[in-house]
Amino acid sequence: MSHFWSSVVHGLTPYVPGEQPKVAGLIKLNTNENPYGPSPRVLAALQAEVGDSLRLYPDPNGESLKNAVAAYYGVTPPQVFVGNGSDEVLAHVFLALLKHEQPLLFPDITYSFYPVYCGLYGIDFVTIPLTAALAIEVTDYARPNGGIIFPNPNAPTGRLLPLAKIEALLAGNPDSVVVVDEAYVDFGGESAIALVDRYPQLLVIQTLSKSRSLAGLRVGFAVGHPRLIEALERVKNSFNSYPLGRLAIRGAVAAMEDRPYFEQTRQMIMRTREELVRNLRGFGFEVLPSAANFVFARHPARDALQLAAGLREKAIIVRHFRQERIEQFLRITVGTDEQCNALCRALAQILGA
Question: Residue 194's domain spans which residues?
């Protein structure tokens, strides 16, 4: 029946998300979910919203959430765009701001949804190789382009690009949109939102899925110059004028407002990450510097795919990418202390350490 498909569908190579197994008792360290639940204030807000009002459409503009994001980051509501997770925000960004005659630039090892969106929207792109240390070198982007996008910290490497480097990239690209995808920035980085008032070509994207434990609610946002936001709104209102439901808006506002819980849980994850890195290095792993809620590691004497299979046999799932340059790395989500200790015990058995 594929003859009913449009020519666009025939040419797509869809994104493949991390496995979500329906098996109880697994230690799931493969999709970078937060090991701690949402803020109690979020749960209370969601419960308060469940009622007769669900028969009514939500605010099509998500104004209360825009206000909460603007207040948190010290920007104005017209500088904020909201959507169903950062993936939907990214989808609108690719169509609204990154489809030009010159090719879009992004790293060769990065979030694998970027080339998918390029295929969907017919966007020409060129990948820029990471360095031998799997880092982004901003001088490599000094070439004609129709836009630049990269995660910071990068995924799946976890490596952070300092704001000074991002500012140098912006200074060298005054006529191109530069998109900084900050899904993991709260685990050790400084947000480039601090630069948006000085660089009108900068757009910063964040999600509430990771550091605010709301992957199941699907909320993301972008911050940038009001003219960039206007382009996103035009695409959004040509696609889905009510993207965020009442529960998503109410829960996300509560998450943005509960700063103490956010700070407590992110600090716990960062402490656990540093202990996990020490333990992995003790087993002989090379571990890249990480500012994310995951680590990227390889063992010089063990095949990554076999290690992942050995962990699975012990009911622990990590992420392995069958991709050139990184096929010997494992991406391991930082779980609770207990989960990471279980991982290390399993690795000790597999490695005979």
Answer: 40-258
